Amino acid sequence: MEKFRKIAVLAGGISTEREVSIESGRNVADALESLGKYEVVRTVIDADSLEAMPEDVDAVYIALHGGWGENGGVQTALDALRIPYTGPGAEASRLAMDKIASKERFDACGVPTAPWCRISEGARPPFPFPFVVKTARGGSSIGVHLAKDVSSYEEALRMCLKLDSAGVIAEKYIAGREATVGIISGEALPVLEICSPGGWYDYEAKYLSDRTRYEFLKEGPLAADLKRIALDAYRSLGCRGVSRVDFRIGADGRAYVLEINTSPGFTSHSLVPKAGMATGLTFAEVCEKILLAAEFDAEKGGLA
Ligand SMILES: Nc1ncnc2c1ncn2[C@@H]1O[C@H](COP(=O)(O)OP(=O)(O)O)[C@@H](O)[C@H]1O
Ligand SMILES: [Mg+2]
Asked: What is the pLDDT at residue 199?
């Protein structure tokens, strides 16, 4: 007897990451179906609500990215319905989606993160050029800019404030390498280094370019450090199930957490499936492992 039989895979949504989510959802649904044990209901979400969700599902696989699907919204709704769902709970999702809230938590818990500050119109961050300007609630690198001088800073700030008037941060630019650590149920997967031509992992590099290379970091002190810090970061936000912790590694070899993605992508370019498969699982088995960890917060059920 399987733990869950009828699974709704939620994809789409109305965030800027809708198209990416549709691809993730299709891949996850195909994979779960291929296992031959689940009744998979492909559920396209067109509003910040569960209106489209079928009845009597045993669990929900959240393949939504960004917005309501990743910020605690859908998680709160599923807690209220007492339906188990993949990935972290509502509060951890909310913290992870908000770069200000998560960086405050990282700082408080001693998780290394790039030095940062909040910015508002008229203020100049205390970092030398170039530095990074980004929205607190962005995703897929939409709303992440490199300020090279005063005029590009002003332009970046203007664009960020248009996307998210409530939260824009500046961050010290960490020249160096980029890596990511997938986690499933408190277990860190092999570390992937992301080698983008230009050193900047933007939307084009993430989803469109075939010139971005991904290489597994060989096991050793750096990989061990990254896994340990990734797990500290995951625990500091109270995550469970699947997440992916993104890092920059400075020229001095020190690792800085950029952010935690609590609903990481499952497209053909995505990194959690790639890292999961490096442990010997198939793509479908990675999805199933994430599915079997689905939970809801019983005590949070009914919270608005
Ligand atoms: N402080 C930084 N130093 C160097 N590169 C950065 C920094 N912040 C962001 N980047 C680059 O921008 C990309 C996206 O930034 P990130 O903070 O992860 O936002 P998003 O939520 O949009 O993915 C990163 O993968 C990295 O390549
Ligand atoms: Mg990122």
From this structure: 64
